[in-house]
Design a protein that fits this description.
Blueprint lengths: L3 E5 L3 H13 L3 E5 L2 H10 L4 E5 L7 H9 L8 E5 L4 H6 L4 E3 L5 H24 L6 E4 L5 H10 L4 E7 L7 E8 L2 E7 L2 E2 H9 L5 E6 L12 H18 L9 E4 L12 H10 L5 H7 L4 H13 L3 E4 L17 H13 L8 E8 L3 H11 L5 E3 L1 H4 L9 E9 L2 E8 L8 H6 L4 E7 L6 H12 L6 E7 L7 H11 L3 E6 L3 H15 L2
Parallel strand pairs: 1-2, 1-3, 3-4, 4-5, 14-17, 14-18, 18-19, 19-20
Antiparallel strand pairs: 6-11, 7-8, 7-11, 8-9, 9-10, 12-13, 15-16, 16-17
Helix pairs in contact: 1-5, 2-3, 5-6, 6-8, 7-8, 10-11
Length: 517
């Protein structure tokens, strides 16, 4: 493979060894003793790859890369840095490879060859998809990272649609929006932003299609594109290396320590995972509902297991199927719920659970509503709800509705006190819907739930349902309902009789029918 390599290094002996290794692979090699000479040489005859130590004299390697990348003629130059980089330099994303300063010259040459092969693939893809035309292909032929770098260097704008099917499972789809070469949004099922992007970068097979267009989506990705791709590739390398030691998505996870004994001042990611462990007992569910990338969440779970704070247990083979609520949910509702859940998973799972949140500032109202839910076929109340001890400041499961074999809805109570406001968006991420309970006959009760409603309403794709709970004999005149709706704001409103029976069951059936997408 032909290519040109500029070696900018004040260490003449190391530069000579690097030049010999590159020349042995057929690359045209030139030299510069410091950054200023390297800049002059690169602008006069643009190389394919620059190899330089981080602490290059006169003009540091990072600054040299920044200057060349800003030049339209040299923006495609690839950089191999020798040395250590701080966090700020890594976030800048001005390099393509970083190796130790004492790296074997042959290993450096192999990295250079890899960058040139990547460049050749990108050039071929660019020729196949001229400006203004769609570009289609297979991820096995051009990796997604190469494709995104191609669009980044050529400042393209448009939408990338991805699809794959593994071992006969249902099709997975993903979308990435690119504006002037920069990644601004990504989606994989119900997951968005950087988390979705990192998940999609892990796709090794499948198809892609790029449609040039003006992009109008709200940016959810703010990290510089080159730094984002470098971090994504680093995580993929780490994932491949540690895959055998990371927890299985199908494993069950049990928190071994009491909430009062959990350490304070932990890392935000660890704090989020510990919070999610109070809601979910399956690794896949924790990963899907966490805001951080999948790899980081799995590493955190493994670290907690190593510290004996959690137990990871393999899913029992041949477990008995759960009783379903097919008498309560219609076949179409079951199918829609299953499709909605599978769309947000990296692969089809044997067991799928949706999350339905309940916000209630009144312990008695929560107890009454849990009693009503217990009448749903397939509903199994959790111990706190069955014993009537779900306090207003408790983040605990209320119960689980077995909708169909391998398909369930987990109902979770979330505190409404303002002190728990940081918890609300975390809990609501990926939720099916949020139910806000208010005692219908209690004057001003809706004011206690209003801060929650205001916070949730600002979240993307939030779905709110206001429930006015009515005891036997309680009625609301139209004027009272209008007043309460005005205070509650946006969201569907249901009057829920607490006596159960046919009327209560009918309201619950209508409510859950509306909740399912």
């Amino acid at each position: 493979m032909s290519g040109s390599v500029l070696i900018a290094d004040g260490n003449a002996a190391r530069a000579r060894r690097l030049g010999e290794a590159c020349a042995a692979r057929g690359f045209a090699t030139s030299f510069a003793p410091h950054g200023a000479a390297a800049l002059e040489a690169a602008l006069a005859d643009v190389p394919d790859v620059v190899v330089a130590p981080v602490d290059l004299a006169l003009i540091e390697a990072r600054k040299l890369a920044e200057i060349l990348r800003a030049n339209p003629r040299a923006q495609a130059v690839r950089f191999v840095f020798l040395g250590r980089l701080g966090e700020r330099e890594r976030q800048g994303g001005f390099f393509d490879e970083v190796m130790p300063p004492s790296a074997d010259p042959d290993e450096v040459a192999v990295r250079v060859e890899g960058l040139l092969q990547q460049r050749a693939r990108m050039d071929a893809a660019w020729r196949d998809g001229e400006a203004g035309r769609e570009l289609e292909g297979k991820l096995s032929q051009i990796p997604l990272t190469d494709l995104l770098q191609l669009f980044h260097m050529n400042r393209r704008s448009g939408v990338i649609e991805l699809a794959r099917r593994e071992s006969g499972e249902r099709e997975e789809r993903g979308t990435i929006w690119v504006r002037d070469g920069n990644l601004v949004q990504a989606a994989a099922g119900s997951v968005e932003g950087e988390k979705a992007l990192f998940r999609l970068l892990g796709w090794r097979d499948g198809t892609f299609s790029f449609t040039p267009d003006r992009v109008h989506v709200t940016p959810r990705i703010l990290t510089p594109t080159r730094a984002l791709l470098l971090e994504g590739m680093r995580q993929l390398d780490e994932w491949d290396r540690l895959r055998a030691s990371l927890p299985s998505r199908d494993a069950r996870v049990v928190l071994k320590v009491a909430k009062a004994d959990l350490p304070s001042g932990v890392h935000p990611l660890t704090q989020e995972v510990l919070l999610l462990l109070e809601l979910y007992d399956r690794v896949g569910d924790v990963v899907d509902h966490a805001s951080h990338p999948d790899y980081q969440v799995l590493r955190t779970l493994q670290a907690l297991a190593d510290r004996q704070m959690i137990d990871l247990r393999a899913e029992a083979a041949g477990a008995a199927p759960e009783s379903s609520a097919d008498r309560f949910f219609g076949a179409a509702q079951v199918r829609r719920l299953r499709d909605w859940l599978q769309a947000g998973r990296p692969r089809a799972a044997d067991s799928l659970e949706a999350k339905l949140l309940v916000f209630s500032p009144d312990e008695a109202a929560t107890r009454d509503f849990a009693r009503l839910l217990a009448e749903i076929p397939g509903m199994r109340l959790a111990d706190p709800a069955r014993e009537g001890r779900v306090g207003p400041e408790e983040l605990v499961p209320i119960g689980r509705i077995a909708v169909d074999p391998g398909l369930a809805i987990r109902v979770i109570h979330v505190p409404t006190d303002r002190r728990y406001a940081p918890v609300w968006p975390v809990a609501a991420q990926g939720a099916l819907a949020s139910l806000l309970l208010v005692r219908g006959a209690e004057r001003g009760a809706e004011g206690r739930i209003a801060p929650v409603a205001d916070a949730l309403r600002r979240l993307p794709r939030a779905r709110l349902f206001h429930l006015l709970l009515l005891h036997k004999g309680e009625r609301l005149v139209p004027e009272e309902i209008q007043e309460k709706m005005a205070r509650l704001g946006d969201g569907s409103l249901f009057l829920v009789p607490l006596e159960g029976g046919k009327e209560g069951a009918a309201v619950l059936r209508t409510l859950l029918g509306r909740v399912i997408p």
